[in-house]
Write a structure and sequence with these properties.
single chain, 808 residues, mainly beta, 22-stranded antiparallel beta barrel, 40 strands, 8% helix, globular
Amino acid sequence: MSISFATRPATGLGALLLASTALALPGLAHAADSAASAAAEQAPAPTADPASPDVTDASAITVTARHREEKLQNVPLAISAISGAELTTKRIERVSEFALRVPNFSALQQNTRVSGLYIRGLGGNASNDGAEGGVGLIVDNVFFTHVGFSWLDFVDLENIQVVRGPQGTLLGKNTTIGAVIVQTAKPKFEPSYTLQATYGNYDAVQVRANATGPIIADKLAYRLTFAESKGGGWNTNAYNGAKLLDNNRWSVRGQLLFTPTSNFSSRLIAEHYETNEYNNFYPPVADVTQNLNLNGTVNSARTGSWTAKLARFGYTPNLNGPYNANLNNQDRLVANTDGVSNEINWDLGGVNLTGVTAWRRLYFRPYNDSDYSPLDIYRAGYDVDVNQYSQEIRLASDKGSTIDWQVGAYYLHEKLRSNLRTIFGSDASTFFLASGVPSSYLNGLEYDRDGHLTIDSIAGFGQVTAHVTSTFSITGGVRYNWEKKQVNVAGYALNVSSLNPAGATLRTALLNNLGGTTGAAAGAYTLDNEVSRGSVAWLINPAWQITPGVLLYASASHGEKSGAANTSATAAQAALVITRPEKSTDFEAGIKTSLAGGKATINLNFYNNTITDYQGTRVDQTNASFGTYLANVGKVRLRGFELETTYRPVPALGLNANVAYNDAKYLDYADAPAPLEFQVANGGAAVPLSLTGYQVAGAAKWTVQGGIDLDQPIGGEWNLTGYANTSWKSRIAYINPRSIYGWQAPVAITNVGLGLRTQDNRWQLQAWAKNVTNERYAVSYGAASASAPVIEVYGNPRTFGGTITRTF
């Protein structure tokens, strides 16, 4: 038995598109020379500005992953990039949608806390406030620490870049898996104004606007970007008719670019994001009602299951997700993000100085119905407040010398509060204690696990590229990082009323369970921990430009991510308040080729990445409320390849196809917690069940992607535009690869669009559809516990609509 709701894996349009691009690309690349000759006889394509849909020529994309502007095909690293124009034209609006075009990349973005970025199946650390992701997020050269910052809608962009492997010798803080780099569009001195409006099914309405131009000619320019999304709720709460999983968000970003002289610039950015949405519903899809033997046969009934406790009320839950919402206490989730940054660049004559100063805050308040029922049992969620301050200074030589070098320093100060609040309702006594227990024993009681984290981090780094010959270079980099973490976690109860001895005994037992305490402590405890340590990251990266169109490269690198803080640790988890650091050593080798004058590209990268003390999520399934925490996994290895190809035989037509294989294995995870359904047969909740040799949870072994885009002149100053992109992933275990629950079957997701644009891009009209075959699929699962079922985070169903864009 396996739990899976992907009903149409890689069928219909998705399978056809994958097959056609996979078959077409090898033949087209083989015929590149003849195609180039034929293309030369055609009329040249209209000149495209940054809004043009003609964006799939990989050789033309400029990236900044090494803090220098370089053509994507000239960078000897495993890096993928999507231009801002393509993001806009193909309505790739959220970080999670980058996965449609970037192999071995995925993102979870249900809400601010349930967010994470993943490269090769690892790195996200969703739902853990005290942990930085193994995949870093860097926006306009500012490193974002909290995983929730990745949840934002990034609009009005120059490009996004996904860099694989440990980062740190140049990019912000250390990361162990990779980094996502987002570059927003800069102010310009040429006036431009763009308005975009979208209407879609589920009454989704979206508005985008940006304006840029001079304030003082050649000295001061501005850019203002506004975005708002409303509606789109596709799941109805049977209890009150509310539309869940909706959009109700807006954002504004203002920029000033100051260029008083030709060798100095200062870019100031201020932004605000605000959401008030029902995006915190996770449909229950199964419950562990039976204890199983390891061979899958039934051992015994599990009498303390979520379903059994609900039966005390005569209520039978509906497990037919996703359309099974029946929640009396669900309310909107509130999240606000503010940020200010300033970047200066100063050409000192042969040496360039860059300084980036930034501040960012996150405010998050959930209002969850945590019992997944119309009963008034309990609400639980994390109130989160984050403030981060960072300063980075870099010196870099001019390009073109025999030796190119960069050195810099980085400082980060972060203060975070994460308070896990559990609030009990009028039905809590029956659910948590027993039938017939008076409601007053728990009604109105609140229990908090209140965590505070302070981080101070300082680093020095440098990177040197020696151009040994005109075609061979070798890059070396090193970084030393010192960091101090201070953590305090306190457990306490609020609204504690006077009870008779029997009631007080029952309540004390529950509070001890919630806090991991014993005796008369009744959940009250305090944990303090402080860790200071240094770490070293390094990189060696030779590259050989064999011909102008063929680049051969290799790299060896090492990075470390500091220990994660379990800001909601119970007293029983005192030894895990701060985990051990995560260490990653990575070896990569690849080849980048450009054919037919850049019309075709074929890039192939091989990798072998070993991570020791990987910080993995565990669930304390004996805890009556939330019990998620981080612990170290002995060793994980990622091994595989990424193949990315593009071909544009004529200016009007572009094709792309990607294939990735990811053998992500637990090499040493003997102490893995057993899935809930096997714990009785395995000897109890405290007895581990090894995952050594199994595929890492959340990592697909195969990814296949394909796409076609069209930008064909049809006369009268108009072009016909269109695109189709699909991404197929193999079977994934989201909870535990030994569990019978939480499996997603292979599935292909396809997005399409068809439209018209004027050749000067002043008007663009488009009809579009996402998940056009309406696949029902999971992007994550949550494990069952003492008081909760198996829950599923669903991907969006089919959405469609129309968009009109006007540029002045």
